[in-house]
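Ticket 4471: requesting a sanity check on a complex prediction with adenosine-5'-diphosphate. Repro inputs:
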Amino acid sequence: MTGFFITVEGGDGAGKTTHLKFIHEWLQNRKVKVLLSREPGGTEIGESIRELLLHGRRRITDETELLLMFAARMENIEQLIRPAIARGDCVLCDRFTDASYAYQGGGRGISNVRISQLEQWVHGDLQPDLTIVLDVPIETAMKRTLDRGEASDRFERESRDFKNAVRQSYIDRAERFPDRIKVIDASKSIEEVESSVETVLLDFYTDWQIDNAKT
Ligand SMILES: Nc1ncnc2c1ncn2[C@@H]1O[C@H](COP(=O)(O)OP(=O)(O)O)[C@@H](O)[C@H]1O
Ligand SMILES: [Mg+2]
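Returned structure tokens:
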């Protein structure tokens, strides 16, 4: 029995951390073993790269930013994701390659062709089985991150145009991969968002159980 791979996406303040916890508990209640990871990060090297990317004081060119994202991702995939899925566990990851298309593609303006070349190299044969995009107007998201009270990172300090481009890129990705990517209106209350997340999750998990029973 192989495991499965779920990613949660969305801008800062969309509610990823909040709903990852909910998904984690939901799966644990069904006796699914869950490995939690995040991007950039997850591994020791990945977390060091995260620090550079989110809190580094030096200027980084857009291309280097993209390459570092994929370098951290390579470690995450080889050290954590592939072994966990091979063991039959579920991997739950806070952001993955869709975020590179949204932030470095939509936000920074790097071509999708370039990102896709890196994607093919780093994980051509491995895609998330389910991706939940939490979609929220940037004003709402910005207010939430302010209320959260943590120091802002390099991406949170970006312009409104950047954040709107990120949001739109996620929507475009979801239209392109409707079977894998599910967009949820995350502007509603936490309870309402949870309920939408649960519907998507139940649907996915039921299909996965049926597929596994066949093999
Ligand atoms: N649907 C929601 N309604 C109101 N507040 C929310 C909602 N979802 C998350 N929050 C709050 O907004 C803040 C940011 O949420 P968080 O899960 O940390 O977002 P992210 O991980 O996507 O940056 C947190 O303080 C969280 O409690
Ligand atoms: Mg978070």
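Notes from triage: Residues 10, 12-18, 144, 147-148, 186, 188-190, 193 surround adenosine-5'-diphosphate (ligand 1) (CB under 6 Å). Leaving this open until the requester confirms.
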